[in-house]
Write a structure and sequence with these properties.
Order of helices and strands: EHEHEHHEEHEHEHHHEEHEHHH
CATH class: Alpha Beta
Strand order of the largest sheet: 3-2-1-4-7-6-8
CATH architecture: Alpha-Beta Complex
Shape: globular
CATH topology: Spore Coat Polysaccharide Biosynthesis Protein SpsA, Chain A
């Protein structure tokens, strides 16, 4: 498989509401890699051409494709907890990404890259169909017991950053059972598509360095929640390469609370969405100064190694 960095293919699944945040993610990716050509594939359900043009403006010279979801099984899905239906669009990647594309990085839209993503792209998957990073807040043993899987500690991954070997996924039609699970076990899927992916690839995924998907729970203690990972499973003392803004209070929320909030706004400034996001988030110059200082202080404590 050719995993050279000459062209890196990155897929998103998004709706109009997340367009500004995806643009911010794209801006961060391009800003941290000046050598590679990117092919951004945005799977969507109706983002207008005017918005597509605004998003493409953050990555001039790079390629964009905008495949439209038409599968009624996805379009008929409602929301569950904080998840909307666009999170399930990743299941359309094998079909909607060109057949000649053998590898893709899938990214959620609520993240920013702080380093060159080429290192993620060239990761050796060791013959696995996907590579991912653990989700330390999910009890993987309880999850396995619930779904009749072989229990294993710290074996549940977060689906926000995935490296996919599309040749293997297509050859085994690996995503096909997803729709049966959606139809028959909807109420049992606490984290929607993420649970489905963990079921489909249980014990058949490559564990990647956690710096590629640093979630808030990895760097902040939450007294109300249990962390199921040990220190060696987390990016302890190391600078994130991708910051993933999981949880409900996103950087663009009025109540944003995250040790690296400012990094989102740093890259938002490179997009056409700065004013509208700040208006909705009710930011002020003083808030930005505080977030800037907090983020810089938190990052300064971490090693780049």
């Amino acid at each position: 498989m050719d995993c050279s960095a000459s062209q890196i293919t990155i897929a998103f699944g998004v709706d109009l509401s997340y367009a500004p945040h995806m643009a911010t993610a794209i801006a961060s990716i391009v800003a941290n890699n000046r050598r590679s050509q990117f092919h951004f594939i945005v799977i969507h359900d109706g983002i207008p051409l005017s918005e597509q043009n605004r998003i493409e403006s953050v990555a001039p010279g790079h390629k964009f494709d905008w495949p439209l979801v038409t599968d009624t099984r996805m379009l008929s899905l409602g929301e569950r907890h904080h998840l909307n239906r666009s999170t399930y669009y990743r299941f359309a990647i094998p079909e909607l990404v060109p057949a000649s594309t053998s590898r893709v990085i899938y990214l959620d839209s609520d993240l920013v890259a702080l380093a060159d993503i080429e290192g993620l792209w060239t990761t050796d998957l060791s013959n696995h169909p996907i590579g991912a990073i653990i989700d330390p807040m999910v009890d993987s043993v309880a999850f396995a017991n619930r779904w009749g899987l072989k229990p294993k500690p710290v074996n549940y991954f977060n689906a926000g950053v995935l490296v996919m070997d599309l040749d293997k996924i297509r050859a085994s039609d690996a995503f096909s059972p997803a729709f049966d699970l959606l139809a028959n076990r909807w109420d049992d899927l606490d984290f929607g598509d993420q649970c489905i992916l963990n079921i489909l690839f249980w014990n058949n995924w490559k564990r990647l360095d956690p710096v590629w998907n640093v979630q808030r729970c990895m760097v902040m203690i939450d007294p109300g929640r249990t962390c199921y990972a040990k220190a060696q499973d987390l990016p302890t003392g190391r600078r994130p390469k991708i910051v993933h803004y999981t949880e409900h209070n996103k950087p663009w929320s009025v109540d944003a609370h995250h040790p690296f909030t400012w990094m989102y706004y740093k890259y938002l400034r490179r997009t056409p969405f700065w004013s509208e996001v700040n208006l909705k988030a009710q930011t002020t110059p003083l808030k930005h100064v505080r977030r800037y200082m907090k983020t810089k202080l938190n990052l300064s404590r971490l090693s780049r190694v």
